[in-house]
Inverse folding.
């Protein structure tokens, strides 16, 4: 069976959510991405990606109680679904097998 | 943390909420506000504000892409699948598209025609306030009526009278024309109708007694590019008129199209008629009512204000019948069927009929599409199943298939425009109009095309879409998915409907043609072959008629010459006479004609009692009458020969003979009473009976003589049988339209049948193979494949026949003299439809019946 791999940015997002555990909502996710890749995402783009991942079934989400700090809005906390975890594992496995045995490449290039 | 007075810009917030309505924008807006507050402390409120707006703007592209993402993805797929399907089944698609295109082309043309007919006279600015005054069944009104209306009826804002003199000789230097559209008109005419002037003043143009106004077209005809103003035109070789105005050509959708107009009052000066008279009727009277006036109220006032005082003054005893009625001008073209109409009107019945045919044809074409699409639906069952399995919803599938049919309809529309353009000249000829098909100039038409395409796409696609989207994935993807009997029966009903409509059209065509043949061969009571007729409008011919007749008779190819007021096919002159021997207070309406001594012989009419006018009886010169049998019967005379009788103008004379009844009108009407008054000097046409040896030479000979006596009159002649047939123009047009559309209907229905048989035999390839292996003959297979369709076509006959019978019977009621619809008509129509259907089906059936079973059984 051929697995459809998730895209790079999807991978970053899923990993960020994974790392943040219970506090994975917009602000820290964006921070995480910035830390990891150096790129600042617009909230609009971030939100669209998260929503699409959720529609595809890789993420689940729930809302917390509203907080005054956020202008009376609640947070939307994301969690990985089983499918999301599997997708990450698939990507990792594929990555490892693709990269297997070519550690020297990076050395010789330097 | 919360900084009072510093809030993110609310407009941006509102925008974000609109774009991402996630529990009132909770997550994203909350996240942004959180970061915003952080930034306010870090970098200050200004930068935070900028940042917030930037975030909002940056959110737009992802939002848009996301909103369209899935749709674009699916749309690309749908389009791909549509195109693939069209290409994969190219012959089937072609059948489908051609069927739709032909149907749509016919529909567009007819609807254009209907739109044109409905637009008659609506372009006048005051169209809804203009009325024509009419009498019971007649359009002519007395000359005195117009001014009386204006004076005595408060609702009447303006009134104008009109006399039409067709074939009037108008000359300017060497240019002589017989003007068809020559009118004597009141100056008030231009207050009522919207006829814009190019030069001259519409208010004063016709006030001078010798003024004439021209349409641009006729001004160009007489004067070329020279300025027409002030030029002198000669009318009927006698009267001179000075051009005082030129108006824009009147649009073709007018119930009268005026080319030359001269003052109304001048007519009475020239002819010596009494303009204040109530007795002679030859004017059309139009009135413009006040804006708030009601037609009925104004009409009701005419009787007590004008008619009653007149009748009282004349000493007529009560009861007085209601004399005058108002008729909305915009109703004239389609709803008015009076005698003495200003020009030939159409009938709203035909408009309804044509529109229904247009819709029927479109309906047949749509049925075709439905039929072929559902028949093919099994091929796509697996696709539907797959789509459903991967999560397509029923609505999406319906949208997909509707989209496909709209695309097909669009392709068909383009093709139909090409077909329509190609067929337009023939169609224009058929309906005798000059329509143009240019959707880029006519925005109504353009809109109509778009709507028709959408309608056809959605209507024709509806049933296949609903049906296909209803497939159950398990059933479709499983192995045992077979032909569904339900779909088959509906397809058959559609075939039934198509053929019922087609057979209906064929029956109508044949019935109308039968009636036309009946008219053509009917014994009208007068001869109409080998007679040419010339209109006479000038004095030079009238004064010299004796010499003209003598010279004409010198030709061996001319056997008789006669002059008369009216030709026998349509005697529209009408009066009421107080007949001696009857109660003088009950005048009897009677038609009249004037003629010379040779009239009866030339037209081969019969005298049943008494004698013809004769030069042997000098007393005839002083006044002699012939009456027809109907007149005698109605008058109740026992022996009319020798009775005194009076012509409408007061000339007295004796009835010398009784004519056998002949049809003095078209066959629509029963024979009515008629008298003919001998008057060899006053006439408006010459009839010449010729031999068939060399017709062009004879006509040249006649032309030479006419030119000799009246050099300026352009020579014009007609064959009397053609004049005769003109009265049945609407019937002829109807026969041709029915014929054309019956053929179209058959064509489209056969396209559908072709597709259906192809499909049916494809489905039964294996069955046919096995049957053949087991010994079935080709003939048997042929019957097997054909019998289903034949059955439905036969049944279609049973539906179509009674409806067609009722419809045609009703139509025939229009004729006082008519043929009947025999069984042969029905049998021929049904037989023709059956034959054509069988031929269509047999193409495919024979092909399948002949296939080698080895090939067909190997398939799969």
């Amino acid at each position: 069976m051929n697995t459809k791999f998730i895209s790079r940015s999807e991978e970053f997002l899923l990993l960020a959510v994974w790392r943040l555990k219970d506090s994975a909502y917009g602000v820290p996710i964006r921070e995480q991405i910035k830390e990891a890749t150096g790129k600042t995402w617009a909230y609009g783009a971030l939100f669209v990606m998260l929503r699409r991942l959720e529609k595809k079934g890789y993420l689940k989400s729930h809302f917390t109680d509203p907080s005054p700090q956020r202008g009376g809005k609640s947070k939307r906390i994301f969690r990985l679904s089983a499918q999301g975890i599997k997708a990450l594992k698939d990507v990792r496995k594929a990555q490892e097998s693709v990269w297997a045995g070519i550690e020297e490449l990076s050395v010789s290039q330097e | 943390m919360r900084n009072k007075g510093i809030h993110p810009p609310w407009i941006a917030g509102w925008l974000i909420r609109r774009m991402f309505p996630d529990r009132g924008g909770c997550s994203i807006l909350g996240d942004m506000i959180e970061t915003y507050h952080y930034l306010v402390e870090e970098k200050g409120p200004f930068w935070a504000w900028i940042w917030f707006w930037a975030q909002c703007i940056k959110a737009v592209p992802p939002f848009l892409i996301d909103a369209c993402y899935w749709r674009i993805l699916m749309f690309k797929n749908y389009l791909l699948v549509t195109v693939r399907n069209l290409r994969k089944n190219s012959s089937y698609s072609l059948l489908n598209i051609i069927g739709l295109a032909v149907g749509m082309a016919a529909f567009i043309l007819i609807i254009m025609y209907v739109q044109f007919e409905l637009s008659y006279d609506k372009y006048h600015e005051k169209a809804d306030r203009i009325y024509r005054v009419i009498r019971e069944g007649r359009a002519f009104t007395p000359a005195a009526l117009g001014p009386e209306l204006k004076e005595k009826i408060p609702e009447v804002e303006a009134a104008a009278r009109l006399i039409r003199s067709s074939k009037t000789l108008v000359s300017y230097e060497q240019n002589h024309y017989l003007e068809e559209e020559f009118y004597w008109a009141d100056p008030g005419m231009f207050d009522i109708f919207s006829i814009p002037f190019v030069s001259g003043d519409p208010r004063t143009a016709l006030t001078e007694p010798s003024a004439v106004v021209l349409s641009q077209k006729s001004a160009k005809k007489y004067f070329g590019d020279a300025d027409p103003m002030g030029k002198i035109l000669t009318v009927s070789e006698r009267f001179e008129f000075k051009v005082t105005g030129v108006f824009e050509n009147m649009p073709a959708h007018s119930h009268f199209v005026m080319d030359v107009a001269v003052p109304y009052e001048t007519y009475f000066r020239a002819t010596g008629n009494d303009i204040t008279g109530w007795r002679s009727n030859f004017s059309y009277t139009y009135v413009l009512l006040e804006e708030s006036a009601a037609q009925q109220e104004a009409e009701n006032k005419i009787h007590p204000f004008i008619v009653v005082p007149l009748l009282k003054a004349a000493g007529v005893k009560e009861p007085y019948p209601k004399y005058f009625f108002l008729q909305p001008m915009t109703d004239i073209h389609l709803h008015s069927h009076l005698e003495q109409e200003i020009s030939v009107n159409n009938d709203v019945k035909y408009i309804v009929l044509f529109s229904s045919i247009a819709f029927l044809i479109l309906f047949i074409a749509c049925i075709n599409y439905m039929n072929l699409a559902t028949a093919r639906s099994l091929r796509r069952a697996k696709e539907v199943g797959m789509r459903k399995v991967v999560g397509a919803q029923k609505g999406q599938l319906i949208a997909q298939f509707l989209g496909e049919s709209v695309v097909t309809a669009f392709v068909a529309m383009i093709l139909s425009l090409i077909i329509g353009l190609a067929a337009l000249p023939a169609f224009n000829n058929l309906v005798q109009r000059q329509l143009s098909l240019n959707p880029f100039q006519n925005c109504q038409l353009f809109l109509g095309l778009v709507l028709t395409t959408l309608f056809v796409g959605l209507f024709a696609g509806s049933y296949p879409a609903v049906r296909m989207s209803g497939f159950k994935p398990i059933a479709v993807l499983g192995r045992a998915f077979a032909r569904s009997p339900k779909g088959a029966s509906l397809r058959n009903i559609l075939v039934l409907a198509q053929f019922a409509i087609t057979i209906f059209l064929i029956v109508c065509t044949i019935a109308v043609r039968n009636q036309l043949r009946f008219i053509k061969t009917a014994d009208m009571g007068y001869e109409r072959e080998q007679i040419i007729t010339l209109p006479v409008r000038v004095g030079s011919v009238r004064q010299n008629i004796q010499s003209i007749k003598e010279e004409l008779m010198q030709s061996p190819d001319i056997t008789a010459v006669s002059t008369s007021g009216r030709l026998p096919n349509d005697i529209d002159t009408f009066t009421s006479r107080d007949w001696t021997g009857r109660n003088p207070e009950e005048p009897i309406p009677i038609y009249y004609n004037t003629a010379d001594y040779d009239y009866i012989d030339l037209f081969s009419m019969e005298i049943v009692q008494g004698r013809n006018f004769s030069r042997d009886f000098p007393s005839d010169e002083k006044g002699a009458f012939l009456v027809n049998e109907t007149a005698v019967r109605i008058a109740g005379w026992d022996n009319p020969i020798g009775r005194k009788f009076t012509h409408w103008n007061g000339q007295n004379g004796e009835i010398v003979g009784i004519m056998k009844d002949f049809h003095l009108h078209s066959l629509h009407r029963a024979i009515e009473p008629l008298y003919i008054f001998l008057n060899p000097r006053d006439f408006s046409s010459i009839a010449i009976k010729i031999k068939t040896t060399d017709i062009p030479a004879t006509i040249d000979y006649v032309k030479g003589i006419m030119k000799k006596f009246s050099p300026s009159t352009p020579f014009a002649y007609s064959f009397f049988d053609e004049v005769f047939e003109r009265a049945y123009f609407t019937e002829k047009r109807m026969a041709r339209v029915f014929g054309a559309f019956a053929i179209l209907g058959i064509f489209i229905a056969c396209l559908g049948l072709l597709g259906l048989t192809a499909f049916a035999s494809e489905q039964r390839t294996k069955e046919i193979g096995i049957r053949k292996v087991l010994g079935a003959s080709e003939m048997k297979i042929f019957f097997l494949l054909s019998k289903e369709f034949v059955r439905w076509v036969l049944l279609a006959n049973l539906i179509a026949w009674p409806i067609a019978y009722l419809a045609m019977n009703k139509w025939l009621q229009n004729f006082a003299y008519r043929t009947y619809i025999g069984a042969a008509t029905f049998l021929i129509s049904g037989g023709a439809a059956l034959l054509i259907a069988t031929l269509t089906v047999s193409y495919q059936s024979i092909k399948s019946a002949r296939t080698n079973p080895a090939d067909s059984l190997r398939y799969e």
Q: What stands out?
A: Chain B is about 55% helix and 15% strand.
